[in-house]
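<context>
A single protein, sequence plus fold
<sample>
Here is the protein in question:
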Amino acid sequence: KEKAMSISVGSQWLANFLIAFLVPQQVSLLGLDGTFFFYAVCLLIIFAIVFFLVPETKGKEIEEMDNLFGARLGADSSSSDESGATSNESSDDQDTADAA
């Protein structure tokens, strides 16, 4: 969690630096209208990418997110329930209870 947060903040700082550095040069090269239209086109391209390629998650359970986006990296294959038992242990307990 901390690594992801530091990467996020670092990339935000880098983006802020690039915008602050490039916009004055863009305005002198393209003018105010050209700079505005450049960012408007960038926004339209990103909107189209998100609209067509990112799946809708409204109304989906959190457990369904792995099906939409793929399994998480570093997550182990055995799931555990609230008691801390793995799925195999809890099914063995259920089988024992069913047999009795």
Observations:
- Residues 39 and 45 are 10 Å apart (CA to CA).
